[in-house]
Specification:
39% helix; 6-stranded mixed beta sheet; alpha/beta; 20% strand; 403 residues; disordered N terminus; 4-stranded antiparallel beta sheet; 16 strands
Length: 403
């Protein structure tokens, strides 16, 4: 930025002079203009929670709002029925806003994805007001099933991030944080199958699937000491037999593995698989391991965009803490491995409630959550504009795009 507060963007032979203050004013005006629609969207999604892969009503609401704002939906759409791709503008710098809208079973929007969705859409609407002046294309990606299978990973595989220069979204939280990482994560469904028999009359004729699971679970417990620092393994038994006097012919478990990085996650996966195989070998059972969704990589937040977001939020009165510690897991981590990304936490008062609780969900349509939607919309849009206006950063972002 020059001392005069102006920046220059080349448009072929023409040079367009853009004032940062003017851009900021237009972002705020656009956010204010769309405020009723954004809050209606947040409240509607909050009141009508849908599980991952089933978010048809949320998507319909979002598509209707984007269409009203002049966004066009790409000719090629994602294979997932509750994913979508829309855009506005024709600039070479493609800014992707990732929209999450899935809820949790029984407790609804206990992770605040209604706030996530509305703030991402709000950022897209704000950026639409300055897209031509900044030479950007605003791309809105509907990304379902973050809580389960990881819709963003599927969108990556289908090529919907190939033209993206930077990606962003904000996440509901109890306080404002930027710069944080996340844990790489993988989930497996495990099935051991043996042979049933009468537990008293002919136990020797059976092959005990529950024995296989007990051996595997014990082996996993013993292996924890040799795992990379920061590793987490969680295991629950989901089926362990049908009657006490019958040798269990089938045993099922769910295993969740987390690690500081995708490379360390692979180490855990290898060890856990060998523990499962040990149970099968010791008992004589068969083993089937099925991934329960996509593997999540760790989140890497872009330093420049993080600083720009923090500056914008500070300017409107938010106290944004920088913290690089990993928090939970997200498929936005996979996006961040490909393109410069931010995934800040936008805070509001939840009276000490933790994510993934009914208590947290209760505050999702509060006045504080509404303010988080609007402030998050502005902060994300302002961070994208900072990248577009800075010649060096714009060049870096364009160079990183996977054209």
């Amino acid at each position: 930025m020059t001392a005069t507060g102006l920046n220059s963007l080349s448009r072929g032979a023409a040079v367009v002079r853009v004032s940062q203050s003017d851009i900021e004013a237009r972002l705020k005006a656009a956010t204010e203009r769309w405020k009723p629609d954004l809050l209606d969207l947040s409240h509607a999604i909050h009141a009508d929670p849908e599980l991952g892969g089933q978010e048809f009503r949320a998507v319909k609401r979002i598509r209707r709002l984007l269409h009203a704002a002049g966004f066009r939906f790409d000719d090629r759409q994602p294979l997932q029925p509750t994913a979508f791709s829309a855009r506005l503008g024709t600039g070479d710098l493609v800014v992707a806003l990732c929209v999450e809208y899935d809820a949790l079973p029984a407790i609804g929007h206990a992770c605040g994805h209604n706030v996530n969705a509305a703030s991402a859409v709000g950022a897209a609407l704000a950026l639409a007001a300055v897209a031509d002046e900044l030479g950007i294309t605003v791309k809105v990606l509907g990304t379902p099933a973050e809580e389960t299978t990881g819709g963003k990973v599927d969108l990556i595989a289908e090529g919907f991030f190939d033209d993206v220069s930077l990606a962003m979204m904000a996440h509901a939280a109890a306080k404002d944080v930027v710069g944080g990482s996340s844990l790489a994560m993988s989930m497996w469904d495990v099935l051991f199958e043996g042979r049933p028999a009468h537990a008293a009359a002919a136990p020797m004729e059976g092959v005990n699937a529950l024995d296989a699971l007990v051996v595997a679970q014990t082996a996993v417990a013993l292996a924890r000491q040799q795992l990379p620092i920061g590793s987490i393994i969680s295991l629950i038994v989901t089926e362990g037999g049908s009657a006490v006097n019958v040798i269990p012919e089938r045993a099922r478990a769910s295993i969740e593995m987390r690690a500081p990085s995708i490379e360390k996650l692979r180490i855990i996966q290898d060890k856990v698989r060998r523990c499962l195989e040990a149970g099968a070998h010791a008992s004589g059972c068969t083993l089937d391991v099925t991934p329960a969704g996509n593997d999540y990589a760790e989140l890497r937040q872009d330093p420049f965009l993080s600083d720009a977001y923090r500056a914008a939020m500070t300017a409107i009165g938010r106290d944004v803490v920088f913290n690089s510690e990993p928090v939970a897991s997200t498929d936005m981590g996979n996006v961040s491995q490909l393109v410069p990304t931010i995934h800040p936490m936008v805070g509001y008062d939840v009276r000490g409630a933790a994510h993934h609780t009914a208590e947290f969900a209760a505050f999702g349509a509060s006045a504080g959550a509404d303010k988080a939607v609007l402030d998050g919309s502005y902060g994300l849009a302002a961070a994208a504009c900072a990248g577009a206006l800075d010649p060096e950063e714009r060049g870096r972002l364009l160079a990183r795009a996977r054209h």
